[in-house]
Amino acid sequence: MNTDKIIELAFYTLPAVVTGAVAYYSFLTFSNSEDKRRRFHLLKENQKQALPIKLQAYERLALFLERISPTKILIRIAPSNDNKMEYQNLLIQHIEQEYEHNLTQQIYVSDECWTMIVTSKNTIIQNIRKTALRTDVENADKLRELILTNLFENESTTNLALSYLKTEVKDFL
Q1: CA gap 67, 74 in Å, rounded
Q2: Tens-place pLDDT, residues 69-78
Q3: Are 169 and 55 in contact (CB under 8 A)?
Q4: Which of 16, 98, 158, 161 has its CB 3.0 to 4.6 Å from that of 69, i.e. a possible disulfide?
Q5: Predicted confidence (pLDDT) per residue in 42-54, tens digit
Q6: 130/134 Cα distance (integer angstroms)
Q7: How far apart are CA 89 and CA 110, in angstroms?
Q8: Helices (H), 69-139
Q9: What gap in Å lies between CA 14 and CA 20, rounded to an integer?
Q10: Do residues 114 and 106 make contact, with C-beta atoms less than 8 angstroms apart?
């Protein structure tokens, strides 16, 4: 008789256990999918807000590269006198000011892109200094002329950095 009671108890308990297990599994699946859905919407909302800021950073860095391009900076900043060293310092000062103004944009671009931009800036400064140290450069106008001549002989580092910047924007869009 005890066996009959145990079997009867099992018949009543087994469906309750199965129903409880199915309910637990369903609840677990539902809560996981709901969590994923919330994360997806949060990520989507964050991207919606971050995209304009990130694009603005790329625009500012493109403008920075254009402004420090030797052809543009030499046209924009004329020498105030014939002293080549003063003109060299003036050009470098403007490049550094532009750089400092856009320094915070590095958080929105990849490390490789930022390295390209910094390398471009440093190469331009190095080329200005090398050209100013040449013995055949007597005055600021000759310095301007030789910087432009060097630019036509070699590909501009700003163009390389700008093309990398454009590629990165296309990749993330």
Answers
A1: 10
A2: 998 999 999 9
A3: yes
A4: 158
A5: 888 877 777 888 8
A6: 7
A7: 31
A8: 70-76, 84-101, 111-133
A9: 10
A10: yes
